Hints:
With 272 residues, the chain is of the alpha/beta class. It contains 10 helices and 8 strands. It folds into 2 domains: 2-146 and 218-256, Rossmann fold; 149-212, no CATH class.
Amino acid sequence: MTFSSEWSHFEYGDRTWAKPVRERAELFLKEVGCGAEEMYGKTVLDAGCGNGSLSRAISQLGCEVLAADLSDSVDRAYRHFSELGNDRTHFIKADLTRHPFAEQAFDIIYSSGVLHHNPNTRAAFASLLPALKPKGKVYIWVYQRIPGLRHALKQIPRSFLAPLPSPIKHAFVCLWLPQAMCRQYLRTVLGRNRPEHRLQWRERLVLLLDHYTPRYRWEHTQEEVHAWYRELGLTDIATTEVREWGFGVVGRKPPADVVRRAELEDTAACAE
């Protein structure tokens, strides 16, 4: 599997997406619009947890975290964090589009950089919502559409690689890595590289694999994603994070009585 191969290169202590885990935990609070004190006692689903480092960091805010991923990374994360005495992060291998999560199980559903790797991003998003409690928050981060020739050219090798068997894709990207590291070194020497972009070879390899090898890599607009939230009945919708490659949107599930009233109104309208 593509993502199992990708995370096999990660070593605990490495940065993920060029960010240390403490910075990612602080960003999580901004993304979901919560203060650290509000997290105590919450139940959180990290839908597509990858290496599990962020899941563990979130749990240290005093909440219970279910860290789910389809790749073998969850097995490795479970072993690693169990040795550290982990007791609030629970790892499960699961397909997010056919998941085993109970209805209304989570106060927060968080899925960053994951849903756009499914055959249909919106359908994958919608499949998670029954597991969200009334008044709960859901946050997703997806790739955004980037105009221009440079981005279009980068997608050409990806379009050839993505359909190939995983070992072939992996080998190609490993062969591509030395030139990527040389370009990084050159930019650093010329003073054109910010410190957060100076990556170890493993960190750079994970980024390259994540860009070039997934079968699906959909791009969306903020207007499109906000419309999904509205169509699925979510409220308090806001874009809370924008980066070079994508953006994140948070919304809230209405209270149970509001949802029930809307269902009754829909039923009545259909009867007419």
